[in-house]
Amino acid sequence: GRRLAVTTAAPGGLWLRDLDALEWRRLPGTEGASAPFWSPDSRYVGFIVDDTLSKIDTAGGPPEAVASLPAAAPRSGTWNRHGDIVLGSWGGGSGGPLWRVSAAGGTAAPLTQVDLARGEFVHTWPTFLPDGKHFLYFRSGPPDVEGMYVGSLDVDAGKQSRQRILATGVPAVFASGHLFFPRAGTLMAQPFDARRLELRDVPVPVAQDVGITWY
Fold first, then answer.
1. pTM, whole model, 2 decimals?
2. I need a labelling partner for 105 at 20 to 30 A (CA). Which of 1, 51, 98, 111 fits?
3. What is the pLDDT of residues 174-214, one digit of tens each?
4. Sequence-ordered list of residues with C-beta below 8 angstroms from that of 209, at least 6 positions apart, any chain
5. CA angle (27 as vertex; 91, 215 as ends), nearest 5
6. Phi and psi (nearest 5°) for 151?
7. Does residue 79 register a pLDDT over 70?
8. CA 121: distance to chain centroid?
9. What are the Cα distances from residue 94, in Å, to 70, 91, 165?
10. Is the dihedral of CA 192, 197, 201, 202 positive or negative?
């Protein structure tokens, strides 16, 4: 909660900034990086270049390749304290499921299965819940399908829950015990019970006139 990691198009690469400072610091060797996400101890940032998942130590040193990715390269990620990384597929490409890979390296394996019969297209924007086993993610599709779902590392790809947690056309993010999501230009927050895996109470506005861009 004290640093930002962003990518830029020109000059390309991964940049870090401490929130109590004005300067941005570029991490060398990260040209072409996209989809940055933090390790649970905030030491590393994971990112994707073309079809390769890499990580870099923010204290210094070159990037380390973690895994080669499928052709429809993922564009979002989340990392738990046990060394599991879950990646979301790219909404602007050919669609696809979530993928699981070890932070220590290895082969990416599908973690969900896109249900074409229901009109699903892509599973993306995963966020691990505090137990490090369950995660929230977005399924795109027709209005009766599109929204946020809960998945588990312990469940086979084709058997993940089909119960929608939140109907939304834009991915929501879990943080500080809440789901944050846009609604008609307003950023909303609603308590989420990470043990019972369900929303509680009612959403409340956090900020107005918010623009959202995702892919």
1. 0.92
2. 1
3. 999 999 999 989 999 999 999 999 999 999 999 999 887 76
4. 185, 186
5. 10
6. -120, 170
7. yes
8. 17
9. 11, 7, 25
10. positive
Token look-up 């390296």 returns 105
pLDDT at 213: 76
What tokens were used for 79? Answer: 């990392």
Residue 22 CB partners (closer than 8 Å, separation 6+): none
pLDDT at 214: 67
Give the pair of three-digit tokens for residue 201: 């109470």
Mean pLDDT over each residue of the chain, to the nearest integer = 92
Place of tokens 């107005």: 208
